[in-house]
Write a structure and sequence with these properties.
The complex is a heterodimer of chains A (about 350) and B (about 450). Chain A has about 350 residues and is α/β, with parallel strands linked by helices. Chain A folds into 2 domains: about 10-130 and about 260-295, Periplasmic binding protein-like II (D-Maltodextrin-Binding Protein, domain 2, 3-Layer(aba) Sandwich); about 130-255 and about 310-340, D-Maltodextrin-Binding Protein, domain 2 (3-Layer(aba) Sandwich). Chain A has helices at about 45-55, 70-80, 90-100, 150-160, 180-190, 195-205, 210-220, 230-235, 270-285, 320-335, 335-340, and strands at about 10-15, 20, 25-30, 35-40, 60-65, 85-90, 120, 125, 130-140, 170, 205-210, 225-230, 245, 255, 260, 305. In chain A, a hairpin with a 4-residue loop joins strand 1 and strand 2. Chain A is globular and about 65 Å long. Chain B contains 8 helices and 14 strands. In chain B, helix 5 (about 270-305) packs parallel to helix 8 (about 425-435) and helix 7 (about 350-370) runs antiparallel to helix 8. Chain B starts with 9 loop residues before the first helix and ends with a strand. Classes of the chains: A alpha/beta (about 350), B alpha+beta (about 450). The interface between A and B is medium-sized, with 21 and 25 residues.
């Protein structure tokens, strides 16, 4: 092992703003001059291979990797108290907001390969994964493997067997999960069936979750049969993934992209730029090396992909009026029994 | 001929003037296109900003005095379609901030349709802002809802860079085409002048008729003056020629009479002393007569040299004719005249002048040769484009250190005693040869004798 691994839970408390570091790890040479501190929403487990690859190329670097929630990323940035050299986040809307508000430095990646246009916005945000939202269905849920392939098919199956699936479904609680909110707004934007499905899920008293991993755990344990809008990358990498099928709806699959930002407050700009180049080169050229970052989506119809576009359009759903209205409608649909 | 004093050129001045005009127009065109395209780019940006702001304000509803705004996704995403842009918006009700970016500057120079534009700065970015205002009524009270949308200028800057390049190309292309055209124009403007020059220089020296070339109005005065000048010139030339002929007669005729009288007196005289006196008179008369003849010859040569009557001259014929004419003079002194041709040659020149020149050279040779000797005339071609005509004698040669000084007027050698001469012979020869663009060489031969040779361009 070329790095020493340290998973700790710390609370950085300062007078005005508190944010919670869920995990923290140090990689590489911590005594050298070349340092890079990363604040990220991705688990250490998930991102460590990429850092190891970087240290193979540049052994003299020392990397400090902190995992926080996406809302805490915003807190850190807006408080301007602690400075990090690189932000990695799956909350595309918040990344756009950060860049739009002037927290991102523009950088033209110094790489020889051409990268797809969807991955870069304004030379400020650099997307480097494509992670589809999937429907995870327990293998015991349907006879003869007649699994639904589209949202409409799912709605039909649910309507046909309302008793079978009562309280046996799960999806994100949009009030608690930024990613869930992002997926939901994009679904609603792209297809009308989203609201019908939500309506049906409301009638079936669907369970609400904070995160993809909890939904997968509940499917594995048999607590629920169907989980809607689960991160496909998590579902595929679960050790007990043979218990369920992962379905990418063929009517429309929403695809999210994790992205990097070089903050204007970065103290080690050169290191951060080097790291950005490294990540882009790794995922867009030698993606065969690590399946975790494999961008090949050839198994899905490219046409049915709804790739969430980095850009100011995402800020629409952050508008307080819009968010209030959307959540009100969503609650109205999903929480039918509570109201009665 | 004296070279004309040159000051400037009509063609150059005209084309320079036109080129400067073209350059001014090209620069003007460059700025015009740029300013027009800037306006177009600005107005297309304004239009899309306006569409965005309008779509937001259209999504606002008052429900029981409660404002709800359902921002359409496209309201912000449309601003980012072509180029990545940072986008800012702010929603205010009666100047009270509701949503978006609180400190975004708003445009407040409202036009009649409640729309205002502003170019400003926000978050250290140059932005274009549009503000749309709409009045609502809440329980009878009017309230103003204002939506401002702003965008960074990436796309605009890019478009302007492109059009700037394009307008530069247009300007430069226009200039190049105009420059070529103005050059052609200038050339065609001076064309009538060139035509006139050609028609004048094509004329023979005796051709002093009025010009018949058609010319543009501007050149009519020039042609009229030229015609009148030529008329006067013709008159003056005729007068000069008449004068020369007249003078020749006036001088020569009395001299011939005096000489004849003197000869008659000589025949009647017996005393040797008297005969000697008369002989001296006759000699003086001969000398005067010859001098007068040569003076007239010289005047004739000078006049003709300026207006050569060019024609094809067969030099072989000319040499043999001249030698034949001088044969009687040579016979008097028992001198044999011989000629030899190594080539057949024609030159373009004035027959009378060339004949005169050769006559003078051979006559000189005869005069200065001892009795019973030979004068050789040879013609050979030299260096293909020139012919050389050489006259050799076996006399005492030139006595001057620098024989070429003999071509000066009235300059004679030192061994001229007893020989009639005016000192104009070689001067005449030299002027003739010069008028024909030839060359004269005078030298002494090794072992005695003189050699006069001249070179003429052959055709």
């Amino acid at each position: 092992m070329r790095f020493f691994f340290l998973a700790i839970s710390l609370v950085f408390a300062n007078l005005t703003n508190a944010f919670e570091v869920e995990e923290r790890a140090f990689f590489g040479n911590q005594t050298g001059k070349s340092k890079l501190s990363i604040i990220s929403t991705a688990d250490i487990k998930y991102f460590a291979p990429m850092i190891e690859l970087f240290l193979e190329r540049y052994p003299n670097y020392g990397i400090d990797y902190s995992v926080v929630s996406s809302t805490d990323v915003m807190k850190v940035m807006y408080s301007k108290k602690t400075s990090y050299d690189l932000i990695i986040s799956s909350a595309m809307d918040l990344q756009v907001k950060l860049a739009n508000d002037g927290f991102a430095k523009t950088y033209k990646p110094n790489i020889d390969i051409t990268i797809p246009s969807w991955s870069i916005w304004n030379n400020m945000i650099f997307g480097f994964t494509q992670e589809p939202a999937a429907i995870v269905i327990s293998k015991t849920a349907f006879k003869h493997d007649h699994f639904p392939r589209t949202r409409q098919e799912l709605i039909n199956k649910l309507r046909e067997n309302p008793d079978r699936f009562k309280r046996r479904m799960g999806t994100y609680d949009l009030r608690r999960s930024g990613l869930g909110y992002l997926f939901a707004t994009q679904d609603a934007r792209a297809t009308e069936t989203y609201w019908r499905l939500t309506e049906v899920m409301g009638q079936l008293e669907t369970n609400l979750y904070c995160c993809s991993s909890n939904m997968i755990e509940d499917v594995v344990s048999g607590e629920i049969d169907i989980a809607y809008n689960v991160l496909g990358s998590y579902a595929n990498n679960h050790p007990l993934s043979d218990k369920y099928v992962v379905i990418y709806p063929s009517d429309m699959t929403t695809v999210m992209s994790r992205s990097m930002i070089l903050p204007t407050s970065s103290g080690n700009e050169r290191s951060a730029k080097l790291f950005i180049d490294h990540v882009l080169e790794t995922v867009f050229v030698s993606s065969t090396q690590r399946t975790m970052y494999n961008l090949s989506l050839s198994t899905y119809e490219e046409n049915s992909l709804n790739r969430i576009k980095l850009g100011p359009g995402l800020m629409v759903f952050l508008d307080q009026f819009k968010k209030q209205k959307f959540l009100a409608e969503w609650e109205n649909a999903i929480l039918q029994t509570e109201k009665r | 001929m004296k070279k004309p004093i040159v000051k400037g050129s009509i063609k150059r001045r005209l084309s320079a003037l036109l080129t400067i005009v073209a350059a001014i127009i090209a620069i003007f065109l460059y700025f015009l296109i740029q300013s027009v395209s800037r306006q177009i780019a600005q107005s297309s940006q304004d239009n899309i900003l306006l569409a965005s702001a309008t779509s937001i304000i259209d999504s606002s509803r008052f429900n029981k005095g409660e404002l709800s705004i359902d921002l359409p996704y496209s309201s912000l995403s449309m601003l980012d379609t072509v180029t990545d842009e940072r986008v800012f918006y702010s929603i205010k009700l009666d100047n009270k901030f509701l949503s978006g970016y609180k400190f975004l500057p708003k445009a407040d120079a409202f036009e009649t349709n409640n729309i205002a534009y502003l170019s400003g700065n926000f978050l250290e970015q140059n932005v274009r802002v549009v503000t749309v205002k709409r009045l609502f009524s809440i329980s009878g009270q009017p309230v103003a809802l204002e939506v401002s949308v702003a965008q960074t200028l990436n796309g605009l800057t890019k478009t302007l860079a492109n059009t700037s390049r394009a307008s530069l190309v247009v300007g430069v292309t226009f200039f190049l085409i105009a420059a070529v055209l103005s050059f052609m124009l200038a050339r065609s403007a001076v064309n009538p002048l060139a035509r006139l020059t050609r028609s004048i220089s094509k004329r023979g020296p005796k051709d002093l008729r009025p010009l018949a070339t058609s010319v543009p109005t501007e050149m009519v005065p020039l042609v009229s003056s030229l015609n009148s000048l030529m008329l006067r010139l013709e008159k003056s030339l005729t007068r000069s020629e008449d004068f020369i002929t007249e003078a020749a007669h006036r001088v020569r005729t009395p001299l011939t009479v005096v000489r004849a009288q003197a000869e008659m007196i000589l025949r009647h005289l017996d005393k040797p002393k008297n005969r000697k006196h008369i002989k001296e008179i006759i000699r003086a008369i001969d000398e005067s007569s010859r001098a007068a003849g040569q003076l007239l010859d010289h005047a004739m040569v000078t006049l003709r040299a300026d207006n050569l009557v060019l024609e094809k001259v067969n030099m072989n014929q000319l040499i043999s004719d001249t030698v034949e004419r001088l044969q009687p003079v040579a016979d008097l002194r028992d001198i044999s005249l011989q000629y030899q041709f190594f080539c057949q040659a024609n030159v373009v020149g004035d027959t009378i002048l060339l004949q005169n020149a050769l006559y003078n050279i051979i006559d000189n040779a005869i005069k200065y040769s001892p009795v019973d000797s030979t004068v050789h005339t040879t013609m050979l071609s030299s260096k293909k484009t020139y012919i050389e005509i050489k006259v050799n004698d076996t006399g005492s040669g030139f006595t001057l250190d620098e024989p070429s000084r003999l071509i000066e007027r009235f300059k004679r050698g030192e061994n001229v005693e007893g020989i009639i001469g005016s000192g104009l012979g070689l001067t005449i020869v030299h002027e003739v040869i010069q008028a024909h663009k030839g060359k004269l060489e005078i030298k002494n031969l090794v072992g005695g004798g003189a050699c006069v040779s001249f070179f003429l361009p052959s055709h």
